[in-house]
Amino acid sequence: MLSHDQIWSAIDALAERYGFTASGLARKAGLDATTFNRSKRIGPDGRERWPSTESIAKILAATGASLDEFMSVVMRRGVAPVRTIPLIGFAQAGSGGFFDDGGFPVGTGWEEVAFPGGTDEKAYALEISGDSMLPLYRDGDTIIVSPTATVRRGDRVVVKTVEGEVLAKQLKRQTAKTIELASLNPDHADRLLNLSEIAFMARVIWASQ
Fold first, then answer.
1. Number of domains in the chain
2. Do both 90 and 63 map to the same domain?
3. Average pLDDT over the chain, rounded to whole?
4. Most C-beta atoms within 10 A of its C-beta, which of 75, 99, 111, 155?
5. Are residues 69 and 87 located together in one domain of the fold?
6. Considering Cα of 87, then 92, then 95, then 96, what sign does the dihedral take?
7. E-strand spans in 60-208?
8. What gap in Å lies between CA 92 and CA 104, rounded to an integer?
């Protein structure tokens, strides 16, 4: 039988694994920032309060974690082992031959970085260069992206155009023919691209800052 402490501890552990506080994870999942506060876990009458299945489903969607991963934390089978993923510079990412049509790195000989708790076999890291993504990402920051994660409005994404331009933006709007990308830097304009101009789009699932 699952205990109240197991479930709440698993939510805390999942948040930490993906670089969030409990309140940060709640916001990322579209919930009230206080949803997972410790003060909300026990009612005024002293009774235990449990997270809803809807809130758990939303944090899994927000992090890209699987139900199996969450349950492994719940059952305290240990933290997923640290594995390494390819690290690609932004300049490299814009060059030809580094990605397949699905946005996955191809070839061997990449530098690698540790990705603790990562279960996405297709995830890879990009090293930010320059200041075009300030104040959110600084020169030298590392972001981890997933070409397989579902992308929703408001998500931070990396987009590569068929011309080789690589952009880190926020998905503002997507239609059947276009995507609108909001700039992370107020000094840079938003972008409107035809889907035919896009080689791939991948969701940012973690950042080092």
1. 2
2. no
3. 84
4. 99
5. no
6. negative
7. 83-89, 111-115, 124-127, 142-146, 156-161, 166-174, 178-182, 191-194, 198-207
8. 13
Higher pLDDT, 207 or 49: 49
Q: Do residue 118 and residue 51 come from a single domain?
A: no
- Give the domain range for residue 46: 4-74
d(CA 79, CA 45): 34
Tokens of 126: 């990009």
118 & 90 share domain: yes
Residue 160 and residue 98: Cα distance in Å, rounded? 11
Q: Could you tell me what percent of the chain has a pLDDT over 90?
A: 31
Are residues 186 and 101 located together in one domain of the fold? yes
pLDDT score recorded for residue 53: 93
Amino acid identity, position 85: I
pTM of the model: 0.59
**In angstroms, how far is the first alpha carbon of the chain from the final one?**
38
What's the pLDDT score for residue 172? 95
Instruction: For residue 187, give the DSSP letter.
Output: T
Q: Which two tokens stand for residue 41?
A: 């876990």
At residue 182, the pLDDT reads: 95
Kindly report the CATH number assigned to the domain that includes residue 47: 1.10.260.40
Q: Which tokens in the block code for residue 144?
A: 């981890």
Same domain, 191 and 108: yes
Q: What is the distance of C-alpha 180 from the center of its chain?
A: 19
pLDDT of residue 38 exceeding 90, the answer is: no
